[in-house]
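Following up on my earlier message about flavin-adenine dinucleotide. Here are the inputs again, as you asked, copied directly from the submission form:
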Amino acid sequence: MTLMSGYPESYYTATAVGARECAPLEGARSADVCVIGGGFTGLSAALNLAERGLDVVLLEAERIGFGASGRCGGLIGSGQRMEVTDAEKMFGFERSRLLWDFAEEAKAEIKGRVEKHDIPCDLQRGQLLGIHKKGYLGHARELADVLAERYDYPFCAALNAEETRARVATNDFLEGLYDSEALSIHPLNFTLGLARAALEQGVRIYENSRVIKYSHTDPAIVETDKGSVKAPFVVLACNGYLGDLEPRVAGKMMPINNFMIATESLGESRARALIDGRYGVHDTRFVVDYFRLSEDHRLLFGGGENYRAGFPRDIARFVRPYMLKLFPQLKDVAIDYAWGGTLAVTVNRMPHIGKLSPNVFFGQGYSGHGISTATFAGKVIAEAVTGTASRFDVMADFPIHRFPGGTLLRYPGMVLGMLYYTIRDRL
Ligand SMILES: Cc1cc2nc3c(=O)[nH]c(=O)nc-3n(C[C@H](O)[C@H](O)[C@H](O)COP(=O)(O)OP(=O)(O)OC[C@H]3O[C@@H](n4cnc5c(N)ncnc54)[C@H](O)[C@@H]3O)c2cc1C
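Thanks, got it. Here's what our run produced:
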């Protein structure tokens, strides 16, 4: 097996740094905690637990970062997936402010991890939100003001059409909001860096070790086809790849597929004419377009989703029209890489963090905002396992409803919902 075998081909695997191969689990082991899933949630939980002195085994069905964490857009926005104005309406100002503060801590956690473990993941600052429709005009100014006045966050600047176009060469954006303290990373390299840190902290990581079942006992017995782990605590961190391992949480999230492409290198001057920096960009569409420039001057562009098992046969062909809608000037540009991944969304787009029993914890459903939120979820789960549950309890207290129809009928409902939002986006 080569270091990157077992991963889907992507720009990220082609530029991966620091992958290590971990053997599959064989035989019976025991640990204080068994973490299931090797993405941001699982690795962050494992690393934080090991730093608190616990003996941790992490089981990953495929390779570390095989899931959404190693395939995603790399944009780390400020706040939660739900905007503060919506969160205030739903939960009131105080809880909205608490959520905002958690999200700021989550960003700080990412920066802190990159620095502490010297993770080579191309950490960049800044993010621009492009307002794509007339009905949202004024939204950027309103949000910048609310954040500055009520959230002590003076780092967002509202941009008019001309200022926005000067930064991103598209006619699609009518206004913009530039957040100078948002971040972006090479997500697979960040994931591999967390894994390296976890290994160095003593976490035993087993790859190609799919958990097939675990007992609802204390201690729990977690089983793969070739081995088992006996542990007083279990952390479920499988997100969109959960499958039918745990039906009690499966119905509260929906796995959806999202897709990305990487163009050939545009060369420095053409790349800079497209976007005037290495920050991330996303727009106000319900199915968000998101993009940024890579270190080697490619456009990394995400757009388009589907709501069934399986990806389109030709992902490049599926995503390219989304890119050309924003950047028709790129029609001569070749696509070098195309890939997809599965994320999990919840009904209200709030993360779903909680406990299934006193010894089984889970984090999932970050709804496209998982880099910082999942990393933070792993940390608060580790805090809760070790007896400090104050932040965990706040996160676990947010109501997450089941998808209508549960795991069987959630997809038809989602397709209808998406049709509605697609039409709304165009009006
Ligand atoms: C294309 C795409 C673009 C995205 N863009 C962004 C973005 O720009 N910004 C952002 O913040 N978020 C983004 N997201 C969302 C973000 O990637 C996820 O929210 C985040 O990675 C979730 O991390 P996780 O660790 O919970 O799950 P994952 O990274 O999916 O990890 C779950 C792991 O569990 C493993 N697993 C599953 N079942 C088992 C089992 N039975 N036994 C053992 N292991 C198991 C899987 O193999 C997988 O590796 C995007 C997602 C996708 C797919």
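One observation from looking it over: The chain has a mean pLDDT of 94. Hope that helps, and feel free to reply on this thread.
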